[in-house]
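Entry 12.
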Amino acid sequence: YGGQVTGVDSQTAIAAMRGAGMTWMKIQVVYRPGNDPSAVGGLIQTAKGNGFKILVSALGQPSDLAAGQGGYIQGFASYLGGLASYGPDAIEVWNEPNISREWPAGQISGANYAVMLGNAYAAIKGSSPGTMVISAAPAPTGGEMAFAPGQVRNDNAWLQELIDAGGLQYADCIGVHYN
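Predicted 3D structure (tokens):
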């Protein structure tokens, strides 16, 4: 098991994680069109150099996704393929795509996310077949009816949409938030 850090070279975090018996380190990176994966490559190598397996959680901005549509998804997948070439142990593809804070309002569905996941899976495995692909963890919620339509999708319904769209074939592991 492991923990999320804001800096892979923080000696305080490293000591605390080792003291707790953690072997995995998670970092979160935000993709913007044009980002160079080499900026994250050094972080991956630093975490590994400190004896940790590394999980990179990669996400983007809902506004960029909404504006770019399929071209954005291709660019994001290409970026993840580039990240994979630096040897992370796992890549989590996006974060909480069932809420409008993380995915474009009105476009929230497990089926829409499955398109992104499929493209990302192909790019990651094409660069590094041994890198584990983890689906985005949906936000745990049952409050869909309390929001305007298109703002939130309950996690169980979103996961069923992902499954129905064939999304499980594009993930080695399904991400879950234990909030």
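Annotation: The two ends are 16 Å apart (CA to CA). Residues 23 and 51 are 8 Å apart (CA to CA).
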